[in-house]
Amino acid sequence: MTSTAATILWVYIVLLLAGGLVGFLKAGSKASLIASTVSAVPLILVALAILPPLVAHIGLGVLVVVFIKRYTKTGKFMPAGMLVALSAVTDVALLYLHFAARTA
């Protein structure tokens, strides 16, 4: 994983954890805090190069599906719709950087 890809992943991880913390502080949602932490752990391990980048792509894909389900259920852009977009953009950026590094 390139340093740019790792930086993008770290930014996503921070936003994911911050979102879980905000959900907990604003609504008392322990589930939000736990889910964001559990989702962030494999991404952290990828960013630290302990796990392969494929794990991040799978994790981000799962998060896109989860957030799409939440968005269709609530119809509210925040937070689910925003997280669909953020997760998808992060995954596309990581894929682009992965293939750009392989062809360089």
Percent strand:
under 5%
Give the number of helices: 4
- Secondary-structure element series: HHHH
Shape: globular
Secondary structural class? mainly alpha
Rounded mean pLDDT is 95
N→C terminal distance: 14 Å
- Biggest sheet layout: none
Low-pLDDT segments, ≥5 res: none
Radius of gyration, in Å, reads: 14 Å
Question: What is the β-strand count?
Answer: 0
Into which percent range does the helicity of residues fall? over 70%
Tally of separate domains: 1
Folded structure, characterized:
This protein has 104 residues and is mostly helical. The chain has one domain. The chain is built from four helices and no strands. Helix 1 (3-27) packs antiparallel against helix 2 and helix 3 (53-74) runs antiparallel to helix 4. The longest helix has 27 residues, at 77-103. It is globular. It starts with a helix and ends with a helix.
List keywords for this structure.
single chain; 104 residues; mainly alpha; globular
Q: Would you spell out the secondary-structure blueprint of this structure?
A:
Blueprint: H1 3-27, H2 30-47, H3 53-74, H4 77-103
Helix pairs in contact: 1-2, 1-4, 2-3, 3-4
Task: Compose a concise summary of this entry.
This protein has 104 residues and is mainly α.
